[in-house]
């Protein structure tokens, strides 16, 4: 995974935090060039992430899976700091397949042992969970689910993902999911993005802003035959 891709992921999570904490009214930061680009440049030089030592049972394996590429890119990146005092985010190197019970035990231990855990109710903590944590989890993992930034696989099951703070790792190519939606090889994409929003679009300011952008096609029901999906470079289902 290129550092650029990693930067974007991290930046997105930072923006999500900034959106919650600064409660800026008006345009979403994601779509504002005057907010996004200067902040992105600033992040490249100032953003710091502290990574905790992996728990003893955790043996990182170097694979070509998105999660291990993410972890190895992160650890080799200039964003890592050894000084927790200057960190914006804290990376919890949980095993990405950690069973819920082990996760809950880890959360209990962290609450007691990690000095930065309680400071923001772990909202500045990031962890990997491939399938994401569901709502039926116990109180400890639920706390992690609700407060920390979760990084999971694409596509994450509905209910295992909280849009304002969580991140999904982009699938690695070749992804079987990519093919049915990608424009055919000899076709030029007419739109930058196609978005299917099954929820209530009026509730999301980002959807409202994208509706007015000619680069995007947004619909709540697929309009078969119009070929919007096939004519778009990227597809997003929310
Ligand atoms: C964090 O808060 C909990 C109570 O909610 C407390 O039991 C725990 O000791 C605190 N952790 C630290 C490291 O101070
Ligand atoms: C390009 O697309 C057309 C349909 O628009 C199709 O008939 C043709 O076979 C395609 N050519 C290639 C090389 O894929």
From TrEMBL:
Q: Does the keyword RNA-binding apply?
A: no
Bilayer topology reads:
Single-pass type II membrane protein
**GO cellular component terms, A-Z:** Golgi membrane
Domain of life where this protein originates: Eukaryota
| Location within or outside the cell | Golgi apparatus membrane
Main site of residence? Golgi
Q: Which UniProt keywords apply?
A: Glycosyltransferase, Golgi apparatus, Signal, Signal-anchor, Transferase, Transmembrane
Domain Exostosin GT47, residue spans? 46-236
The signal peptide stretch is 1-26
GO MF terms listed in the record are: glycosyltransferase activity
List the InterPro entries hit by this protein, alphabetically: Exostosin (IPR004263), Exostosin_GT47 (IPR040911)
Q: Into which family does the record put it?
A: Belongs to the glycosyltransferase 47 family.
> What is the protein name for this chain?
Exostosin GT47 domain-containing protein
Its source organism is Escallonia herrerae
